[in-house]
Amino acid sequence: MVQRATNYYDDLFVRLIGDGVSQRIAVERVGTAYLDGKPLPVGKRKLTKKERDSLFWSSDVVKGCPPDAWGAEAMSLALARYLGQEPVTADRLVTRVAREAPEALIRAVRHSGLVLNPHSPRRSEVDEAASECEAVAELCGVLDVFTGAHRERVAALEAQKAQLAALSVFELLLYASLYAFEVLVPKDFNVKAPAPSSGADVQVTWDALGDLLAWKLAEAGTSSLKLTDDNIGRSLARHLRPILFESGTASAGEALRNLRAFHALMDAQIELNEFISRSSDAFSYDDGIRFERRGNRLEIVEVDPAARAAWQRDGLKLERLHGYWFHRALDTYVEQVAADPTTWKIGRPESAEANRLAWLRALQAQLRLREAYGVADEVTCDSGDTVDLFRALLSLNLMSVFFQQDFLAAFAERFDASGDWVAALQRLTMDGLREGLQNRMPLTWSSRDSKVSNITGWTVTKSEPAGNPRMASAILDFWTYDMVATAERLQRNEPGLQPHLFERPVLKFGATLVQLPWVVGMQNNSTAAINNLRRLGARRGQARDEAQRIEAGLARLLEKRGFRTLLNWVPPRGPDDAGEVDLIAVLGGHLFVIEVKSTFMRRSQRDAWLHATTTLRKAGQQLRRKVEAVSVAIASDPGFRAVLGLSEWLIPTRQHAWIADTCIECDHQRFGGFLKVSVEELLIALRDDRHLLNDPAGLLSGSYGVDEAREADASESGWSLYPDGFSAERFAEVIETEAVWDVRTATRGGRTLQLADSQNVASRE
C-alpha cells in the first residue's frame, strides 16, 4: 500500500483543530503560515515559491475554506498572491470564491496587481467567474477599461522610443539635460531655497528619466557604456553643439528634431507613469476609493476619506521631520563652532555661506541616520571600503553647492539677462571656458582620478591636512551608479534594485564619471543617504548592528526618563517561539514592549501597501508572541523580574506594545492589534523637543527675524509634552494620541508659518 504524501498546511490545520482552535481561526493561521513562507527549510532542502504555492492551493484547507474565511486578512492576502502569480493553477477556485464570497474576490483582484496583467491565466479565470456574480462581472468591465487605457499609453510610448532608438545612453542624457534646463531648472533660482519652475513636477520627471535610462541600458552594448574622450566628443558635436552654437545649420536641424522627440518621449513616459501611479496603483492599493464604470471611462468615488487623508498626513509629517533634523543640526553646529571656529571652513571664501549650509545639511543627515536609523559613523560601500559617513554626506552636499552656484544660479542669472534658455546655456558654457577651461555644459563628466583628486580636498582633517585620497575614492564609490553593471543585470533579466537618480548621483561609464547638475543641485541629500543605505544597501552586513543601535538609543532615552530597560531578551523556546524581544521598559506600573523595524523611505502607495501587508503584518504577529512571553516571564521568573526592578508584589498593571518603524508609512495604524509609530516620534517624545518640528527660528519658512512674541510661541517650554512633569502614563498618552504631531502652528499677525524644508525635492510624492 502506497502511503499518501502529507501536506504541511493540512497537517497544521489538523493540529490546530486538535488543540481546540475554531475552524475559522485555524484557517486564518494556516493562511498566515503560507504568507510567512512556511514550511521553513529543513537542512539544505528549501521549497521553491512554485512548490509552496502548489502545496497550499492543492490543500484540503483551501478546498474546504468556509466562505466567511476569505474575507479575513490572511486568506484575502493569500488569494491576492494566487491571482498575482501564473505557474500554479487551482482548478475552479476563483469561480467558487466568486460565488461564495464575491467581495473578498474583488478585493483580492485589486490587491493582486492583475489590473495591468491582462494576459495572465488568472485574469481568464476571473473572466470565467463573472457569470457567478454581477459585481464580479462589473469588475471585469472595469479591468477591460484599464487594459485598453494602458495599452494605448504603452503603444504611444513605444512609438516615441522608436524615434530615438539610435541614441546611446550618454546621448539620451545629453538631451535629458537640455530638456531639464529648458523645463525644470528654476529661472529665478535662489541658492538658499531652490524650487521647481511653475507647472514642472521635478520628481515625476526624474522618475520618467530613470525609466528611460533603464530602457536604454537594457539594450546598450558594453562598449558604448565605456566612455572615452573620443566618443564623448562625437556625441557633443552631433547632439549638443548644434543646438547651442550652430543655430540654423543642417546639423542643428537634426539635433532640434531629436530634442523635440525627446520632449514627446518624456511626455509619453510621464503619461504612462502617472496613469500607473494615479489610476492603476490607486485601483490596486488605495482602499479609500473605488472605480465606477461609465461606459468606456472610469470615475473615482471616494468611499473612505480618512484612509486617503492618512497618506497625505504622513507626507506632511515627513516634511516636518526634515525641518526637525535641520534644527537639531543647527544646535550641534553652534556647539562645534563654539569649540573650534575653524571646524566647518572649507572651499572658496566667496562660497562660505553656501558651504556652511552644506555642513549643516551633512550634520542634519548624519544625526538622523545615527539616531533614527542606527547608522555608525563609518559605513561600508559596495566596493568593500570603509567610508566616513559625515565626509561622504559633506562631499555630496558640497557637490550640490557647486552645481547650485556655478550652474543653476549662474544659468538663472544669464536667463534673466537674455530671456532665452538656449542663449543662457550658451553663455554659461562660454563663460566656463573663459574661466580656466571649466566645463559648464548642462551635463558634466570627468575621469575617476580627476574626481577623486577634487574630492580629496573635502576630506581634510587636522590629522590629515592634505586630505585622504583613499577616503575620497571610497566616498565616490558610495555615491556611484554603475551603468555597465546595471546594464548587464538588466540584459540577463536578473532581479535587482535600480537606483533612483538622486540616490546615487555619480553615473559611472567605465573610467568616466557623469553628473547631472540639475539633479545634484536640487535633490534632497538626506533622503538620498537614507535610501542609499536602507533601500539599496538593505542587505549590508551592518544592517543588523544598525537595528540594535536603534534599540539601544531608545533604551538610553528611556533610562534618562527613569525607566528600567532590557534589550534583546530571548525567552525560553516553546511551541510558539516568540524570538528575540527588541526592547522592554518598565516605569510606574507601566510595561512597554517595543518591536523595532528599520526600513527606507517609500514614495508610492504600492510600496506602502506592500510594507503594511508584509513587514508590519508580520511585526504584529511577532509582537503578540513576544508580549505573551514577557507576561509569562514576569509572572513566573523572579530573575527576570529582578532585572526589570520588579517583585512578586510589584508588577505592571498597564501594558503597552508598539511597533516602532523607521519609516512614516501607515503611521498610527494597528497591526495585529498593536500600534505602529515611527522611531522618530518616540525620539521626539522622549527628548521633549517637538517645538523643533515647527521651525521655531523661521529659518525654513524664510521668515527669520527677531520677534520676541513669536519666539515665546515657539519656545521649548511652551511646546512641552509634559507640563506637569514626565510620567510613564503621560508618555503613553503622548504616543497614543499623536500629541507629538499636534497641528497647532505659531501664528503672528494672521500669517501662518510654512513648515517646509527648502531642500525637499525627491523626498516623497
From TrEMBL:
SUPFAM superfamilies: Restriction endonuclease-like. This is NERD domain-containing protein. It comes from Thauera sinica. InterPro entries: Restrct_endonuc-II-like.
